[in-house]
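testing teh design pipeline on a random one, pls ignore if ur not involved
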């Protein structure tokens, strides 16, 4: 049975199977934090800036697209299809 755990990239989550000790696919940060949904399909790596702090998140296409039109303090810097596990900020 897979569980959700913090990924090595802070602020992100991945599925983990303790019986095999192997991390599974990453899951959408917003889907998990807001609804407890383990969305693993078609993720994007998204670079954002919040009040001068730069972060990298893994998001589903819907949430990544929603960030483009977000009118809050969050500034979208860049997006790429797929999960990048060692991105440079």
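output:
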């Amino acid at each position: 049975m897979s569980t959700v755990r913090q990924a090595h990239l802070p602020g992100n989550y991945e599925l983990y199977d303790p019986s095999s000790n192997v991390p599974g696919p990453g899951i959408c940060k917003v889907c998990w934090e807001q609804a407890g949904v383990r969305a693993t399909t078609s993720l994007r790596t998204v670079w954002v800036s919040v009040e001068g702090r730069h972060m990298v998140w893994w998001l589903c296409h819907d949430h990544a697209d929603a960030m483009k039109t977000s009118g809050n303090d969050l500034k979208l810097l860049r997006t790429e299809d797929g999960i990048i596990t060692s991105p440079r900020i």
